[in-house]
Amino acid sequence: MTDVTIRGIDDDVYANFTAEAKKRNLSIGELTTIVMRALIDDVGTTNYRIGNLASLNVSRKDLESLKGPVLFHNIKALEFTDDIDWNLFDKRVMSIKNCAKVLIPQTLTRFQVLTKCAQVGEVKAK
């Protein structure tokens, strides 16, 4: 094991990280190792960023055409088509950020989609 000093970590992030470690009954070092390992394992996966659009309609074909997960950001109206199920959504949608309105098919629940969302105005089923 290596001892490390890390400077410049945001106070709120560190407090939340520490609380998460306690909640999981792990030391900060153990949780840090888990997070670092997950990041290293994910490095081989291509991530895509799609954003800064007024609207976007995303289909199963769109998501399957990419080799890795997608981050959707700054889209006023983001709509997922009815042919997208939870398995595909979970695998290919990394996150949805700063979107005013997200329309989802009946195959997804709002709670499933909200696990991928940050700073989203509305998540609504079609």
Describe this structure in words.
There is one protein chain. With 126 residues, the chain is an alpha/beta fold. The chain has 2 domains: 11-42, no CATH class; 48-125, no CATH class. Helix content is 36%, strand content 29%. The chain has 5 helices and 6 strands. It has helices at residues 11-23, 28-42, 60-64, 86-92, 110-114, and strands spanning 48-58, 70-80, 93-97, 101-104, 117-118, 122-125. Strands 1, 2, 3, 4, 5 and 6 form a 6-stranded parallel beta sheet that branches. α3 links the parallel β1 and β2 (70-80). The chain is elongated. The relative contact order is 0.12.
From the structure above, extract its key features.
about 130 residues; alpha/beta; 6-stranded parallel β-sheet
According to DSSP, the number of beta strands is: 6
Radius of gyration: 17 Å
Order of helices and strands: HHEHEHEEHEE
- Largest β sheet strand count, sense and barrel closure: 6 strands, parallel
Number of helices, where a helix is a run of at least 4 consecutive DSSP H or I residues: 5
In round numbers, the mean pLDDT is 92
Q: Can you give the helix content as a percent range? A: 25-40%
Q: Pick out the low-confidence regions.
A: none
> Beta-strand percentage?
25-35%
Structural class given helices, strands, pairing?
Answer: alpha/beta
